[in-house]
């Protein structure tokens, strides 16, 4: 297969690359010739994905990094491993993240701390480490995975929604700081996707999980396209854009109530009829 030269000689680092949006990002970058640094907890799945894409698209290099970004030491370890390998990261995709379903007062303190470490602190640490190098070279791209919950509260997933609000605010602020450089920052804010997210969060019985779900390929393509164009915020799909617009019109209490309705558990029959 003839190699697309758009990303020839460049490297992307993708966290949470073993499934869902991360896997689809890996496919898109590989198709355009980018070398891959794939990060996740599951080594076997990463190797199957990475080396399969390397063979298919004749990539020069694929680096597999097994790491749990809910651990405070992981971002620095990832950065050190990449630097030791002599790899220059041209694009950083902070895709790894997790949710946790239930009333805030009933969930364990540690589960919320782990979520914030993964969704917020590790994302900031990786960005801090790699953006310094990008700024020095005056070239690079960063994509941070937000959510439609970045712009609305999320009762029954309160810590998750707040973490994604942080991601959007952080991305917008960093983009402004870097606007006179050749380093861009994009926040991808998708609606519910057909991934393992709801199952892992314990929210697979909710209305949101059993409603309209965007396919990972669609979300990744929109984010990839927006990032390549240097867009600041990418919301996927016309319905999601209308939902985002409505949050500026509806009273805050009504937005929160709507979000809570979407997170209610539905019956088995309702799930079958979706």
Name the strands of the widest sheet in spatial order: 3-2-1-4-5-6-7
Give the averaged pLDDT, no decimals: 89
> So, the CATH homologous superfamily?
NAD(P)-binding Rossmann-like Domain
Radius of gyration: 18 Å
Total tally of structural domains: 1
Keywords: Oxidoreductase
Family: Belongs to the short-chain dehydrogenases/reductases (SDR) family.
EC number: 1.-.-.-
Pfam family, one: adh_short
Walkthrough of the structure:
The chain has about 270 residues and is α/β, with parallel strands linked by helices. It has a single domain, classed as NAD(P)-binding Rossmann-like Domain (Rossmann fold, 3-Layer(aba) Sandwich), CATH 3.40.50. Helices cover about 45% and strands about 10% of the residues. It is built from ten helices and seven strands. Strands 3-2-1-4-5-6-7 form a seven-stranded parallel beta sheet, sandwiched between helices. The longest helix has 29 residues. The termini are far apart.
In short:
This protein is an alpha/beta fold and 274 residues long. It has helices at residues 20-31, 43-57, 74-84, 109-137, 158-177, 197-201, 216-228, 238-246, 252-262, 268-272, and strands at residues 11-15, 35-40, 62-66, 91-94, 140-145, 183-188, 233-234. It has one domain: Rossmann fold (3-Layer(aba) Sandwich), CATH 3.40.50.720.
Essential attributes:
274 residues, Rossmann fold, 7-stranded parallel β-sheet, 10 helices, 47% helix, SDR family NAD(P)-dependent oxidoreductase, Sc_DH/Rdtase_CS, SDR_fam
Write the layout of secondary structure elements.
Blueprint: E1 11-15, H1 20-31, E2 35-40, H2 43-57, E3 62-66, H3 74-84, E4 91-94, H4 109-137, E5 140-145, H5 158-177, E6 183-188, H6 197-201, H7 216-228, E7 233-234, H8 238-246, H9 252-262, H10 268-272
Parallel strand pairs: 1-2, 1-4, 2-3, 4-5, 5-6, 6-7
């Amino acid at each position: 297969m003839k190699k697309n030269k758009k990303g020839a000689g460049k490297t992307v680092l993708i966290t949470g690359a073993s499934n869902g949006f991360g896997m689809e990002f890996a496919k898109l970058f590989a198709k355009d010739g980018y070398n891959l640094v794939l990060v996740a907890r599951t080594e076997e799945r990463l190797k199957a994905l990475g080396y399969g894409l390397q063979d298919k698209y004749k990539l020069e290099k694929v680096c597999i990094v097994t790491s749990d970004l809910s651990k405070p030491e992981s971002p620095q370890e990832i950065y050190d491993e990449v630097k030791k390998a002599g790899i220059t990261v041209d694009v950083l995709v902070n895709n790894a993240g997790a949710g946790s379903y239930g009333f805030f007062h009933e969930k364990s303190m540690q589960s919320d701390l782990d979520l914030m470490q993964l969704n917020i602190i590790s994302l900031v640490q990786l960005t801090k480490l790699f953006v310094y190098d990008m700024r020095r070279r005056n070239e690079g791209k960063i994509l941070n995975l937000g959510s439609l919950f970045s712009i609305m509260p999320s009762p029954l997933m309160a810590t998750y929604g707040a973490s994604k609000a942080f991601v959007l605010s952080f991305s917008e602020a960093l983009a402004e700081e870097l606007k006179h450089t050749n380093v861009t920052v994009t926040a991808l804010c998708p609606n519910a996707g057909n991934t393992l997210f709801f199952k892992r969060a314990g929210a697979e019985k909710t209305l949101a999980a059993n409603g309209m779900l965007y396919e990972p390929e669609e979300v990744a393509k929109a984010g990839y396209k927006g990032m390549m164009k240097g867009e600041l915020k990418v919301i996927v799909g016309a319905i999601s854009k209308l939902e985002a617009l409505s949050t500026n019109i509806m009273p805050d209490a009504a937005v929160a109530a709507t979000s809570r309705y979407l997170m209610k558990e539905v019956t088995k029959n309702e799930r079958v009829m979706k």
